[in-house]
Amino acid sequence: MTINAKIYAQSGIQQLKSMIAGNFPPPSMGLTMNMRLADVDYGFARFEVKATENHLNPMGGVHGGFAATVLDSATGCAVHSVLEPGEGYGTIDLNVKMMRPVPKNVKLVCEGRVLNRSKSLGVSEAKLVDENGKLYAHATCTCKIIAPTS
C-alpha cells in the first residue's frame, strides 16, 4: 500500500495525529511558513509559527499573506480533523481581519475550531495570538467537503 493509500484510509483526525507523530511527512507549506501542527483534536487544530526574514514585504514588515496563510492552515486543519476516511476538503472562502502587524521572530500560536460541519460544508474560525493572548489576526473560513469517489 502506498503512503497516499495509507493516508486516505484514515479519518482526518487520524491523518493529522499521524503527521504530528512523524509517521507522515508534514506538508511542504509548513516548512515554507515556518509553522508546525502542534496539537489536534476533533474539530480543533493548533499551530506554532514564527515569522522570519523570509516572510517580509517590501517595507520590511511581515507580509499580510503570512497571517492569512497560517489562518487558512488552522481553519482548514480544524475541518480536516472532522473528515471521514476518504473525504477531502478545499477552502472556498477565507475572511481575514488583521488586528495589528505580525512581529518578526516571535513565537505565535494559531488555533482553529470548527463551528459547523454539514454533509457538504465545514465552517471554522481561527485566531493568531502571542503567548499572552494578544490577538494579531482572526479568520473565518468555509470549506467544501469532497466526498470519496468510488
Give a concise summary:
The protein is α+β, with helices and mostly antiparallel strands and 150 residues long.
Give the SSE map:
Blueprint: H1 3-8, H2 12-20, H3 28-33, E1 35-41, E2 44-49, H4 64-80, E3 88-98, E4 108-117, E5 121-129, E6 135-146
Antiparallel strand pairs: 1-2, 2-4, 3-6, 4-5, 5-6
The number of domains? 1
Strand content: 35-45%
Low-confidence segments: none
* CATH superfamily membership: Hotdog Thioesterase
Beta strands, count: 6
- Write the element-wise H/E pattern from the N-terminal end onward: HHHEEHEEEE
Helix content: 25-40%
Assigned CATH class: Alpha Beta
Q: Assign the structural class, choosing from mainly alpha, mainly beta, alpha/beta, alpha+beta, or little secondary structure.
A: alpha+beta
General description of the model:
By secondary structure, the chain is an alpha+beta fold. It has a single domain, classed as Hotdog Thioesterase (Thiol Ester Dehydrase, Chain A, Roll), CATH 3.10.129. The chain has 4 helices and 6 strands; from the N terminus they run αααββαββββ. A hairpin with a 3-residue loop joins β4 and β5.
